[in-house]
Amino acid sequence: MSVELNLNGRIWFETPDGKLLGHGRVELLERIQQSGSLRQAALQMKMSYRQAWDIINYMNEHFGTPVVISQRGGKGGGSAQLTEKGFKAIEQYKLFQAKFREFLKDNSPLIEV
Q: Which InterPro entries match (predicted)?
């Protein structure tokens, strides 16, 4: 009996210090861009504000230039927005993710087990 096998996997960007950008972090960046708020993005992803802040802070430090800039809250509340580097990071991730999916699709038929 033959079973259909497919390749599967995930892709992420990493530094020697660890994971820098993957699916979840791209989603966080996109939600920040949509909402204009780190707090709202964190709530939407069911993570603590502190966890989201730590992730953004890590990316800002390790990308060399910030991917998100924020303004502290005040009377009207704080705000957060992606920088050009943030948009470029998302664009690059999605490009390589698409190429990776294509690789998986093209090579799955080659499995001979």
A: LysR_HTH_N (IPR000847), Molybdate_resp_trans_reg (IPR051815), WH-like_DNA-bd_sf (IPR036388), WH_DNA-bd_sf (IPR036390)
